[in-house]
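Researcher: Here's a chain I'd like modeled. Treat it as a single chain, no partners, no ligands.
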Amino acid sequence: MRNRNKTHQLNRTAAHRKALMRNLIDQLIIHGRIETTIVKAKELKRYADNFLSKMRKNDLSAKRKAISILRTKDAFKKLFSDEFIVFLNSRAGGYVRVMRTSVRPGDATRLAIIELTGKYEPKDTKKKAPKKVVSEKPVKEEIKAETKVEEKNIEETPKTEEVKAPVEEVKVEEKVEEIKEEIKVEKIKEVKEEVNEEKKVEEKKEEVKAEVPKEEKEEEIQPKEEKKEEPKVEEKIKVKAEAPKVEEKKEENKPQEEKVEEKPEEPKE
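Model: Modeled as a single isolated chain. Structure tokens:
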């Protein structure tokens, strides 16, 4: 009979299994999420919920218990930080959850993700480089030097303004003259273009007028040719109509000639 089926032996001895759970909970606190097999994840969930519920008190006994279980200082600092303690006190239990993911290709073992629940998002564990401490003496000297330079600039500003004013007026006048000249040149170009366009329009009108009389002459010539051709057609029709009459007359004349030939010759006495 196999008793205590609730726990998993994981094919390890008690000491080995205990060390495994300590390493996993250490990494879970640092990273907030780890991926492992389903059996290990279920066993870690039971172990982590019991451990984190004891850390809610944030007293000396809790810290001693944490030191005996956790392996790194980073995990200990993060466990007792203000953010993590608020996260633990925000709920009565269920600090960890397990989610099944996929199958490991090597040995077809089912994998799962175990992570901290709630809105807790662990920050990066990378150590930031310490800020360089700057001594106060050079800073004070720089401030004094800057104030002296500003005083000198304030004294010199009115002189420079008086000198630059007439120069700026001269430049403005030159720009105004240049703009006027450009406007004149553009107007001249526009006038020339208008004149050229008018000339082209007049030339087109003259060409149209020259083409109109040519077309009228061609139209006058065409009816004359048509009038000459009409009588020719009528003459042909008349000739064709007269042709059968002439043939009939020839046929009438032929039998008379034959009759004349058939008369016998009278004997001479």
